[in-house]
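Team,

Forwarding the record for the chain on the shared tracking sheet. I've put the sequence and predicted structure together so nobody has to dig through attachments.
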Amino acid sequence: MFPKTVEFDYYVPDDLWFFDGHFPNNPVFPGIMLISLGIDKFRGKYPYFGHYRLHRISYCRFKDIVRPYEYIKLKFIISGQDDKEKGLEMNYIIEKSGKTCLKASLSFIKGALHD
């Protein structure tokens, strides 16, 4: 259903709502919003993915900060295909200038939030 690897390039604009408070005069892209950004981009490209919801973040390491005006690459490496028992497992990596900013292991299951 999904390819093994999916990548998106993203330019970080300076007008994202959370930069005003995270942190004043020193804007940093919040980690949870980086995860949300990737999931939203993936859903936009693969509408069928809307049937999945995030179930677990089993690993997440932030290695570098992301700021406005930077170009980042969002990369998903899918380790399983649409398994009804296991759901969908993927590694999520964010890079900037070839350096890793974030590495996470994400698990998704089918269904609405309140099945």
